[in-house]
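Minutes, project check-in

Agenda point 3 was the complex the collaborators sent over. CS summarized: two entities, 714 residues total, and the question is how they sit relative to each other. Sequences were read into the notes so everyone works from the same version.
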Amino acid sequence: MKFFMPFIAVLTLVVLALVFFVVPPAEGLGNFVRIIFIHIPCAWIGVLAFLIAAVYAWRVLRGARNGAAAPAAVARADRLSARSAALGLAFTAVATVTGAIFSRLTWGAFWNWDPRQTTILCLLLIYAAYLALRSVTTDPERRARVSAVYALFSFLAVPFLVFVIPRFYFSLHPEPVLNAAGHVDMDPVMLLVLLLALADVTLIYFALLRKGAAS
Amino acid sequence: MSGRIAVTFENVSKTFGDHAVLENISCTLTGGRIVAITGRNGSGKSTFLRLAGHLLRPSEGRVVVSASAPLARDGLRRHLGLLSPELALSPELTGLENLDFLAGLRGRTLADDEKAALCERVGLAPEDARKRARACSTGQRQRLALAVLLASNADLWLLDEPGANLDEAGRDVVRREARATAERGALVIVATNDAGEAAWADEVLTLGRDANVTTHNEAILQPKAPSQRELSAKDFVVEGTNQQPPTTKSRINSRPTSDTPPAASRPSPLWEGGLDKATAFATLHLLRRELMTALRSRSSLAVMALFSITALLALSMALGGTVLAPAPLSAMLWALLFFASSMGLGGTFAADEAAGTLLLLRVYGAGQAVLYGKTAFSLLMLLLLAVVLVPLFFVLLDATCTAPLLLLAALVLGLVGLAAAGTLLSTLTAGSGDRAAGGLLPVLLLPVILPVFLPAVSLTQAALGGRPAGLSLLVGMGLYDLLLLVGSSLLFDALWYED
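CS then shared the predicted structure for the full assembly.
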């Protein structure tokens, strides 16, 4: 684990170099296409962080149900759930801003309530609501349970928002990397860099999460 | 009950924030006697009582309540009764209605003569029992709370300062009933500072609190007979003087012994087929109580209706007769419904907390029955709001509905989702410990309700003659509503029960 952070730092530099010097300009988008190498990984972490927060929330409730046998484990799970939500909020905010910039450059408006914009805004709202709820709940034990319940309950909306709603409404948003037909319709170099960027941002997320658990 | 009730504390500590109230308490209290918990103010007497009734969760260790076997949460609730100055009866219900309601929560129906007999036992005049609880004096309410306790047939009585607000005759009634209850095998735990009340007990536990008198976490056992015995630091044992011996012997820093019963099993939420006859019965009683309270106080309904009508009038005035297309009309209708609903749903549990009846529901109500009853009431309240608001909306904004059935379906499914999610989320805000949390409900609710809200807007738009919407949206709304109902049922117990 000693080499974990230096490895992430090197990988990040490599990914940045690839994004700015190797990825070719895209047809119709030119150099603006580079923004997707930040936008897509951040949006991915927005959803992943939510899933991880929900998993730790479930551990909080399961630990609490087993009585106070392992209060340290419950407190750790609560801390990790909250940390994941805070990181999710930051990554989702970046994804929202980069998405809005991309939208302005390609569709002429920062915001037009596209279904995917609605989805990401909803994630942002859930994270904000979760953290606000934590901030107003004074008793630590109750805060852990209340926020765990909200993390799990709001997670019910995610499959609907990510997978169902966008299919029912017209969207200008480009097809996902893996499109509805199950094909990857992307330049191979771009795809490789995108996968590296996804791996890099995922590692950054887990590194920050671990750091939060230790503190 | 198949066996005598016992409460076992196993190395229990309780802290509130950084403040340790009880530390490393181990003891077993068995049925058939009265145990008094005494100690200075702040020594943790009330905390001890709440831990014994699983109304509080220990910070460390565990509390096991068992009959012949450990009791599950709902099973424990059926054995539990509490008399405390902090426990308030439903203020808008009469004494007799309170008796009906609380017996109903326990799955029982009381005949008129039973209620009359209970009131007579506690010394409550018939005309006082017919008054609303808020019109009764504090002493009368305490007597009524005792009648509720008697009606509950509880085997674990938790009496917190039971003589508070009572005259001498009232205290005699409590003493007599506590003794009779202990003699039928129940366990009566009395937390008191009153020497007279402590004298009722077969055992007296003094919780050490002041470092100058005893060590902080020391507890002293004071059996009245045959001799006083003092335990060394940290633990205490309650041994029967004339009853069965305790099941667990405690030692200094002892860990739970191997014959300790396992932890209580899960209750049965909706998903596990838990809507049994008793739950349905209790749900109906809760719904009836909510309706009676709402109709008598009218405050929550009036505030919600006035808010929505005022917002609608403001919109209509601002538009000044401009006829809007179906898209903005449907968006406005749902925005109005959402914010008015948030306002009404915010009071679902907050009203109980403000009136002090939340503790009453926690003691006498099973979690799932409370959730179903509250959700059903929330839904009725929202449907009533829609009945008032929607026609007014059509009149004031000159809207035309081309598909009334579609509109009706969208309204019903949308409001079911709002009721299910809003009821659970209002529990989160009510118990957060901060008054500002009440304002958070719309923030918490909107993202969760969005998978219902967006299709509802689209379907309403279609019903108003706008862009057609597929019926698959209705199916999606129905499925999501179901998911919300099941999800809230599964998660509610984590909020409702402290154990």
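Noted in discussion: Residues 45 and 191 of chain B are 6 Å apart (CA to CA).
Follow-up: revisit at the next meeting once the mutant set is ready.
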